[in-house]
Structures are given as C-alpha cells and as structure tokens.
Design brief:
Layout (H helix, E strand, L loop, with lengths): L10 H15 L2 H14 L3 H26 L3 H8 L1 H15 L4 H16 L9 H19 L5 H26 L14 H10 L3 H19 L4 H31 L10 H47 L6 H18 L2 H7 L2 H18 L4 H26 L4 H6 L12 H24 L4
Helix pairs in contact: 1-8, 1-10, 1-11, 2-3, 2-11, 2-12, 3-9, 3-10, 3-11, 3-15, 4-5, 5-12, 6-12, 6-13, 7-12, 7-13, 8-11, 8-12, 10-11, 10-12, 12-13, 15-16, 16-18
Amino acid sequence: MGKTRYSTLSFRGLLLVSVTIFSLHFGAASMLWPTTWGRDSGASFTVAFAGFFLSGIVLPWMGYLAVSKGKATFYGLTRSVGHKFSLIYGGITVLALGPLFAVPRMSAASWDGLSSLLAMDPGGNTFALSIVYMLVFYGVTLWFFYQKGAIINRVGKILVPIFLLMEIIIISVSIFEPLGAPVAPNYTLNPLGYGFLNGYQTMDLICAIMFSGFIICDLQKRLNNDERSINRALAVAGLLGFLIMSCAQFGEMYRGSTASGVFPDLSYAKLSATLAMRQLGMVGGAVFNVYLIMACLTTAIGLLAGTASFIEEAAQGKITYKTASLLCFVVSFLVSCAGFEAIFTWATPLLQFIYPPCIALALCYALFNRYRGGLRAACYAAALWGAVDAGAEYLKLFGSQDLSLLLAQVPGYEYGLAFALPTVAGWVVGQTHEALRVRTHEKAPVT
C-alpha cells in the first residue's frame, strides 16, 4: 500500500495566516504595554523580554497547539471537560473577552486615539461624535468578521500590510535615532520575573483558543477539509505568528528602554505617543494614533469572530454564525455607547476566574492529551481557584482585603501562578481516579 498523501498549505497561504494571527493578537495592549515594560526595565530589557517570551509568546502558542492536538475549537475543548463547564465557563469567557468588556475597551481606546489625532477638545461636546465613531468602528469590524471564511483574506490582505509598515517605521526610527541610553530598572523584582509576570497577563492564550475557530474555517477551504493537515498548519501558523509578534514586542521593549532615562514617569499610550512625536514630529503622532486604531480594530475583529463562532457551536447551529455576529455587533455598540466604566470595574475580576482554567486546558491538551481524567479534574480545580480569586477581587470593591491576604500566602501568588498548585493536585487526583477506574473495569469478571 502506498503512503497516504496529505494536503499542504502553500508558503503564501501559510504566511498570510501567520501574519493575520500576529495582527489579531497585537492589539492595543500588546502594542502599548511592551514599550512601558522596556522603559521600566531599562538596561535589563533583554532579560525582561526573556521572561516575557516564556509567558507571553510560548504559553499563548500552546493555545494553538492544544487546539491542534485536541482537534477541536474552544467550544470543543471545553465541551470535553463537561457540558455545563463549557456553557458556564466558555460562555463567561467569550462574553467577557467579546462584546461586554474587552471589545468595548478596544473601541474606547481607538476613540481616544482619534480624538488625539484630530486634537478634539476633551471638554467639548464630543458625545454625539463618539456615538457616530462607535457605529462606524463596529460597522467596519462587522464587515471584516461577518463571513467567517473570509476573515483571514480580508484582514491579511487589507489591514496587515498597513499594520506591519507602521510597526516597522516606528521601531526602525528608534533603532537609528534612539532617544537616550537605557538606565537601571525602576523595579525591585528580578527582570526575568518581571517580564514573565507581565507577559502572563496579556491574556493572549485565551485569545488564541478563541481565534482558532474561524482560522480553522479558513484552513478547511485551503486544505480541502484534510483534518490532519489543518491541525498541523494551525500549529505552525500560530508559531510563526507569535514569532513575528515576539520580534515586534522586542522592538517595542527596546524602544521603551531608550526612554528609561528621558521619560521615567510616562506610561502606556502617553509614553508611546510621546516617543513617536519626539522622533517623527506631528507626523509621528498621526502615525501612532492611526496605528493604535488599527491595532484595536484587528483585535476586536478576532474577539467578536471568536465569540460568534462559540455561540454557533454552543447553540448547535440553531443560532447561525451570521446571526451571532449581528448580536455581537449590537451588544458591543450598546455597551460602548452607554459607557463601560462601570462594566470595566465589575468585569475586570472575571479575568481572575477565566485565565487559570484556560491555562490548564491548553497545557493538558498540548502536553498530556491522552490523560483525560487528569484534564477534567485540573480544569475544575483551576476554575475553583479562579472563582475564589475573582471573589477576593470583588470583596476588594467593597473594602474587604481579608480573602486576598489569605490567598497571598499561597506559593506563586506574587507572580499570578498561585493556581498552579491546586491545578496540579487536581490533575494528579483526577488521573489517579481514572486509572483506578479503568483497572477495576478491566479486572471485573465477564458475565
């Protein structure tokens, strides 16, 4: 018998998917935060980047690897843990990172960028203009993600070239015309730990698993529904996309490090905008603000498309992807217009609940795919820890610090890794129980 032949993705197709993955992840946070991390790290920015690479590049790529090995989307992976787990945990995750929280934050950040670009008076009556802008922003976003199979082509061929060009310009200017020499770090943490902690908080791992649904839809057309080739291409494209992002973020951290002795008190958007204007004048300010809008737009496209994909699968086709897309459009627009400050305050602790189970899900599928008993128990243990941690954050809103002080005694809490101990314990207990169950079943007499 001859060897089975598999479909292969062309280099052009692989590059298109990879750069699109980069642009979807390189949103406002991933664009702005590394510059500040580099400013804080100063002369130690390379060590800080090494820590960031582990938690902000390798760990998120594990999301694509988990989907590849699990042969399922975000809904499918969570469904393997349990039906209720999928609906509750998965539903909270896609709503929080989609139309109720993260996406409105993206549109608000892009509106701030446009306001700065047009030099609008913050005290003026800009509410009506902001409503019009939100309608346009979400209208454009909807056009990009309304057809699931066209997202990669539209984003990759229209937005990515502009996106990459602006990033290359901004970093190149910093390399050839640095503002100053890096100084000592302005924090007491070890730079490696500082980078790891900040990279871990980017939430790109969850985004990777959410984005995989519509990326797989695109790969199905390119690879003639060859499942093995699709899974392999997803893992490779995800790896290349994150390697491209690592280059951009290294450049942003270097850019920030050159300003460590010049602008020690500026952070995030203000720091990045000031650097652009100092190095390129008013043109630099315009480039930065357009770049910020583009970054917010690409990530909003990915998050809303991922949300719509999850809703379609969870509803078992009773709600189509296009109907779910329209629902995401309406909810995001209404939340943004109503003002999401209160939602931001009350939704932020949910991130404490969302991330631990996602890490458990990704690592178990990527590294221990065969051990399903351990996987389920680890995810439930991580979810339990996440619920307690989120509860502690909510208690803080009411002025109570007691639970947070108690949780702070757990090893790894200062690095956001306190969930690791209960998660590993859950995996061991769950897998042991599964092994004993299988052994008992094998020894049972046949009647």
